[in-house]
Design a protein that fits this description.
four-stranded mixed beta sheet; 12 helices; 22 strands; single chain; UDP-n-acetylglucosamine1-carboxyvinyl-transferase, Chain; alpha/beta
Length: 405
């Protein structure tokens, strides 16, 4: 059984964006709600390397802009795809030679579309067979460009942050944009810092130049991605309340509430706290194309529903910390749950979750999915490489332990 209350960690998606924008402000910014994670700390390390002054007191980050360090820079993004793509664009406003690199699965992700975009803006870009490390140099200029958003929206996020700083107007045409809610998130936080960007149906973005972000106090809302696992835990194993969440959030994973209700779970709101309670769960059908990070918690939910659930959008899962279409399927099958993938749709038939020892595939969301299913398994589940959760939610196992009854 799971029962109790947890405060959601800060949204790492908002926090990484806020760190990047604040580092470009002329005066000191205060970002409230800092929660450490590997991805967030990678973003902090990057802005420090770029010359920003950063200090942290309690849960507040203080960031002051500084002069870009001269000479060649090597920026390590850890395993953060957002930092790698976002800072590739942001650092392009500088002319010196900068290498963007990382570690683990990030080094296997494709970056050719990033190069294609930056070359249109005047940069010289070298890749390692289409992958990191990426080295950039030369002057970036405003322009009208066309980019492909089919792999990720993270490059567009970086461009929307960087292009307002240039002289002159830029126009970005985007084909096949995925994860649209994340771009709305970027536009919202840029507006908070005083940057104005117009768009037409998320296909054409008009960005006036010579816009400087204003120093601000900014409070980061709770992370719906992290909360989704806890709420699914409540739906399948008891009653869990998660506080610190914005019910009107632009975060794509806010959709977990809609799916839980589709599946028959009892969901209650009170101020910024949402509670999910166990009930008879039925199969659901959901398109996760624009919120692919929901696949693991949705897979855990589907494993505990009566009947066969379908989750659309598996084509968005191949270049995550693991090939998640494969690793979700493998994990569920090892737990005794039937899975099939057809036409970019995952079909999961609910059943009895069995005790087993399995790997997280060094993927934080696979580790959390397995742990949540461990709450209803017919015996203990052992997870190797469980420290993968440090990427996004270092306190995950502590919080789950606090809910165990």
């Amino acid at each position: 059984m799971l029962h109790g209350r947890v405060v959601a960690p800060a949204s790492k998606s908002y926090l990484q964006r806020a760190i990047a924008i604040a580092s470009l402000c002329e005066d000191e910014c205060h970002i409230h709600g800092y929660t450490p994670s590997a991805d967030v700390d990678a973003a902090l390390a990057i802005v420090r390397q770029l010359g920003a002054s950063v200090s942290i007191s309690d849960k507040t980050i203080f960031i002051s802009n500084g002069d870009i360090r001269r000479g060649e820079l090597i920026l390590s993004c850890g395993e953060s795809g957002l930092s790698a793509r976002m800072f590739s664009a942001i650092t392009s406003i500088h002319e010196n030679r900068i290498t963007v690199t990382g570690k683990g699965s990030l080094m296997e992700r494709p970056f050719q579309l990033v190069k294609d975009a930056l070359v249109q803006l005047g940069k010289t870009v070298e890749l390692n067979n289409g992958k990191l490390p990426m080295t950039l140099w030369g002057k970036m200029h405003s322009a009208e460009i066309t980019i492909d958003g089919s792999e990720s929206s993270q490059l567009l996020t970086g461009l929307l942050i960087a292009l307002p700083l240039l002289n002159g107007k830029s126009i970005v045409h985007v084909h096949h944009l995925r994860s649209i809610p994340y771009i709305q998130m970027t536009l919202d936080i840029l507006a908070h810092f005083g940057i104005s960007i117009r768009h037409t149906d998320f296909q054409k973005f008009e960005i006036e130049g010579n816009q400087q972000p204003n120093a601000m106090e900014y409070t980061v809302e709770g992370d719906w991605s992290a909360a989704s696992f806890l709420l699914v835990g409540g739906a399948i194993a008891g009653r869990v309340s998660v506080s610190g969440l914005n019910p009107n959030s632009a975060q794509a994973d806010r959709a977990i509430v809609d799916v839980l209700q589709l599946a028959g779970a009892k969901v209650e709101w009170e101020n910024e706290e949402v509670t999910c309670s166990k009930s008879s769960l039925r199969a659901f059908h959901f398109d996760a194309t624009h919120c692919p990070d929901l696949f693991p918690p949705l897979a855990a939910l589907a494993a505990c529903c009566e009947g066969t659930s379908t989750i659309k959008g598996t084509e968005r899962l191949h270049h995550k910390e693991s090939d998640r279409a494969t690793t979700i399927s493998a994990t569920l099958r090892s737990l005794g749950i039937a899975v099939a993938i057809e036409n970019h749709t995952m079909q999961i038939t609910g059943g009895v979750v069995r005790a087993v020892s399995l790997s997280s595939f060094n993927d934080h969301r696979i580790a959390m999915m397995a742990a949540i299913l461990g709450c209803v398994a017919d015996g203990p589940i052992s997870i190797t490489e469980s420290k993968a959760v440090n990427k996004s939610y270092p306190n995950f196992f502590h919080d789950i332990a606090s809910l165990r009854q």
